[in-house]
UniProtKB/TrEMBL annotation, chain A:
InterPro entries associated with the record: Aromatic_CoA_ox/epox (IPR052703), Ferritin-like (IPR012347), Ferritin-like_SF (IPR009078), PaaA_PaaC (IPR007814)
Protein name: Phenylacetic acid catabolic
A Pfam family that the UniProt record links to this protein: PaaA_PaaC
GO biological process: phenylacetate catabolic process
Lineage: Bacteria, Bacillati, Chloroflexota, Ktedonobacteria, Thermogemmatisporales
Origin species: Thermogemmatispora tikiterensis
From TrEMBL, chain B:
Superkingdom of this protein's organism: Bacteria
Record-given protein name: Uncharacterized protein
Gene3D superfamilies: Phenylacetic acid degradation B
């Protein structure tokens, strides 16, 4: 196992990191597919930047692993493997999948010094991704015509992602037995998502017609 | 009107170094100030700025100067 630090990563942490690398590559691909299709130029630029950052983060994390280590410990949930057909889908992926991966990474980093050294900048970048997702989630949630579809997409992602995060928590508990009774990434993520959804204002305004480009009907 | 349909122009100002004057480098369209800040950060990322600010264009006021031919003096008029 190739590590750049003095800390030997346990096989369980390696499997966890490999899973997060795969997740970040998948996220980058989602963002990449929308980097010239956003509802406004600035949103496309933002998504393009997020794609670059996800790829960069995946590369940094993959640097902790050798080729053998890139075998993931857990496959990604099926809904995140499908291309995002509309802007609402992409925002839901950013709001739920991206935040789930970040939560798992932050949880793992608390118990691995070599991981913690590498993820500080990642977590800083991810705070921007979260703000972007939260802002767009609120904007879409304010639209009476879009709100039902937004909530439907959220629910489609929420359950499989929660189950995925619980499995990641189990992986982490195997890696760090002392962590067994500590707070879980799944619980923290679920609380965060619930808080965001609670902030969604009931929609009473006309929908923005520019919000559903290219197959977003 | 909802925030989604109501996008505004935000001017982007930066300082390259902490002691530099604020300099206008461009603008972004955004429905909220938070998104304007994110868009500006990601769009104008050619340098690591000491400071980056966004200001809603509507909230800035221009000062127009005119010469009064009678008095022969310059008067500043704030619009």
């Amino acid at each position: 196992m190739s590590t750049a630090s003095d800390e030997e990563l346990t096989p369980a942490v390696v499997r966890l990191v490999a899973t997060l690398v795969a997740a970040k590559r998948r996220l980058a691909r989602h963002y990449l597919e929308w980097c010239v299709r956003g509802p406004v130029l600035e949103a496309s630029t933002a998504v393009s930047a997020m794609a670059q950052e996800e790829y960069g983060q995946a590369r940094v994390l993959a640097g902790l692993l050798d080729e053998e280590g890139l075998q993931t410990g857990l496959s990604l949930p099926a809904p995140v493997l499908q291309p995002a057909p509309c802007w609402i889908s992409l925002i839901c992926l950013a709001a739920l999948f991206d935040t789930a991966v970040t939560e798992a990474l932050a949880a793992a980093a608390r118990y691995s010094p070599s991981l913690a050294r590498r993820v500080a900048k990642i977590l800083q970048e991810e705070s921007f991704h979260q703000l972007f997702a939260q802002q767009w989630l609120q904007l879409l949630g304010q639209e009476a015509a879009l709100r039902p579809r937004l909530l439907q997409q959220v629910e489609q992602l929420r359950t499989p992602l929660l189950s995925w995060l619980e499995q990641l928590d189990q992986l982490l508990s195997k890696a760090v037995p002392a962590r067994a009774n500590c707070s879980r990434a799944a619980a923290a993520w679920q609380q965060g998502v619930t808080d965001w959804l609670r902030q969604l204002a009931p929609g009473d305004a006309a929908p923005g017609s520019h919000i559903l480009p290219e197959g977003g009907s | 009107m909802s925030d989604l349909a109501h996008s505004e122009i935000y001017q982007v100002l930066v300082r390259r170094k902490p002691d530099d004057e604020l300099r206008l480098i461009g603008s972004v369209h955004a429905p909220t100030r938070e998104l304007a800040m994110l868009y500006a950060t990601w769009t104008y990322d050619e340098e690591t700025w000491a400071e980056l600010q966004v200001v809603r264009r509507e909230s800035s006021r221009a000062a127009a100067f005119a010469i009064d031919p009678q008095a022969g003096a310059e008067k500043g008029v704030v619009s």
